[in-house]
Design brief:
Layout (H helix, E strand, L loop, with lengths): L5 E6 L6 H9 L4 E3 L6 H5 L18 H9 L9 H18 L1 H9 L8 H22 L3 E7 L1 H10 L3 E8 L2 H9 L18 H18 L8 E5 H6 L1 H11 L13 E4 L15 E4 L6 H4 L2 H10 L1 H6 L6 H7 L1
Parallel strand pairs: 1-3, 1-4, 2-3, 4-5
Antiparallel strand pairs: 6-7
Helix pairs in contact: 3-6, 4-6, 6-7, 8-9, 13-15
Bound molecules: zinc ion.
């Protein structure tokens, strides 16, 4: 019997650990980590961004075949105008769906509201074609898309062509704010000097937008196929957390760890994601709680007030001062 074809969307704000979670899941036999499909059309293929295998997509043994199969552009033409022509309608459709009113409609009623049907049809067909080609090319039965935005998960949920699952990955917003404000050097093997930085207002806005979108989408996904995961729980118990994801996916296999917190990462084909996607070999997963001693008190209180409903919903502790201000 053919194995069921599954797609797992990782939804959640940036800097919540999606890259390492996706990398661990990508080590499960039969799984393929596709990176962030949301960037495929407008950036990764258009700009020929370097793949996790250190080549351009046009030279990558996986992506060059996927583009040929899904878009009908031969590897020799994937750096030229034929690929740009094939990408353009998908980029336009994605832009139209990203407009706030269209996005909210898609999240609240995935697959039911057809008022923006042309754009949704174009993006759905392009996404399904790429997923089909990735599964066929790699021989995997389960694909992981760590696009993080709820709208990409809504498109996959509405496509109805795969068994679709969601991991909703959240991290304490005070830790996310701290992660964006600090200048953290990266290992030389990642090819980048440091992680990019972002200010408090933009970080908060994006965090709230992502969490609101996820809550719009959640009621429309079968609860047996939606798993909330907190970064802090994943970092404290990596093997057990990944095992719970495999259980949700109805996979009868062990999480790919060599100990409770260590995993050996092999080469991957991520086109997007944080620069740590280039890391291979043994990786120990440890909690990063630097924010608790380094985030200035004033910023911490601002984050507490702005995110209070979500802090409570996701079970994060709230400072008493924030509660008094919000009441
Ligand atoms: Zn590659």
């Amino acid at each position: 019997m053919e194995p069921r074809r599954k797609v797992l969307s990782i939804v959640g704000p940036s800097r919540s650990g999606s890259t390492i979670l996706s990398a661990v899941l990508g080590e499960v036999p039969g799984f393929f980590g596709a990176g962030e499909l949301r960037w495929l059309w407008g950036r990764d293929l258009a700009e020929q961004r370097v793949c996790g295998c250190q080549t351009t997509p046009a030279a990558c043994p996986v992506w060059s075949r996927v583009v040929e199969q899904a878009m009908g552009v031969s590897p020799e033409e994937q750096s030229g105008p034929r690929l740009a022509d094939a990408l353009q309608p998908v980029v336009s459709a994605q832009r139209e769906i990203t407009r706030l009113s269209n996005r909210r409609r898609l999240l609240a009623t995935p697959g039911a509201d057809r008022r923006h049907s042309v754009a949704l049809d174009v993006l759905t067909e392009a996404t399904v074609s790429v997923v089909d080609a990735l599964l066929q090319t790699t021989g995997a039965h389960t694909l992981i898309d760590e696009s993080k935005r709820p709208q990409e998960a809504a498109v996959l949920a509405a496509a109805g062509r795969f068994d679709h699952y969601v991991v909703h990955l959240v991290r304490d917003p005070r830790a996310v704010v701290h992660s964006w404000r600090r200048s953290k050097p990266l290992p030389a093997s990642t090819g980048s000097a440091a992680m990019p930085r972002r200010g408090l207002p933009k970080t908060l806005m994006r965090w709230l937008e992502n969490c609101s979108g996820a809550e719009y989408l959640r009621p429309h996904i079968d609860p047996r196929r939606w798993l909330p995961v907190r970064y802090e729980d994943f970092a404290a118990h990596p093997r057990a957390t990944v095992q719970s994801i495999l259980d949700m996916l109805e996979e009868d296999c062990e999480a790919p760890f060599t100990s409770d917190d260590t995993v050996v990462l092999g080469p991957n084909h991520y086109l997007s994601g944080n620069p740590s996607r280039f890391r291979t070999g043994p990786v120990r997963i440890v909690a990063d709680s630097e924010w608790q001693t380094s985030l200035p008190r004033r910023q911490r209180l601002l984050v507490d007030v702005a995110t209070l409903p979500f802090l409570l919903r996701y079970g994060y502790p709230v400072a008493g001062a924030a509660l008094r201000r919000a009441s």
